[in-house]
Every structure is written in C-alpha cells, then in structure tokens.
Amino acid sequence: MECTIHWVPETGMSMLAETGSGHLLSMDGAPEGGGRNLAPRPMETLLAGAGGCTAYDVVLILKRGRHEVSGCTVSLKAERASVDPKVFTKLHMHFVVTGKQLPEAAVARAVALSHEKYCSATAMLGRTAEISTSIEVREAGA
Length: 142
Hints:
Blueprint: E1 3-8, E2 14-19, E3 24-27, H1 42-64, E4 68-80, E5 88-100, H2 104-118, H3 120-125, E6 130-139
Parallel strand pairs: 5-6
Antiparallel strand pairs: 1-2, 2-3, 4-5
Helix pairs in contact: 1-2
C-alpha cells in the first residue's frame, strides 16, 4: 500500500493525498494553525478511515453469513490527549445496522470480529485508545 502527500502552498496548509489506488484525498489544517478549513483535518481522516475499515468488515461478515443487510452507519466519537503527540485516547463506535430479520447476536458478533480480528485501523488505534462499541439493529422498511 502506498500514498503520497503533496503540500499545496498557495492554500496555506492544505495537503493533497494521492493513494496507491489512484484516488485523491484533500486535507487541511485549522485556521489557527495556518489552514483555511478547506477539507478535513488529517486526524479526522484517520478517524474516518477507522470507521470505514470496521464498517466494511461488519457488512462483509454479515453478508458472508447470508444475512440480508441493507445499511450500516458507524458514528465515531474520539477523545485526544491534551499534550503532543495528541493521540486518540478514547474511541467509541456506535453501529446502526439495517436489514431484514437481522439477529442482534449476529451483528454483535460481526462488530466483535471486526474489532478483535480483522480491522487493521482499530487494531492500531487500540494501542493508544480505549475502544468501546455499541450496536443498534433496525428492521429494513420499518
């Protein structure tokens, strides 16, 4: 996996990431740090990446279990250390999974498997952050 970050000087502190798969991702800093708030902060993209990684796992695990999953939302709330490096110290992920007759136990298992075995992003963040999860299962069409 590769990624190249390009600073865009004329925008203050904006950065443009070019991923190995050929996609572009903009990032910017807070105005008090020289940024112009044109894009997410780098730490926000890290948090979003963790959410995307675990949501991907949960959906894939449920589909492989032949469950009819039609939606998955993960809301993440993180706390950071007050001193540099301001790593994440707490992370809570709330999963809302929608489908037809989804057993809550299957969703809980998928979330646990992602957290304990498959999600590389949360495995790394778990080195500095206390990670907690909660789930909500919704019936499709309800």
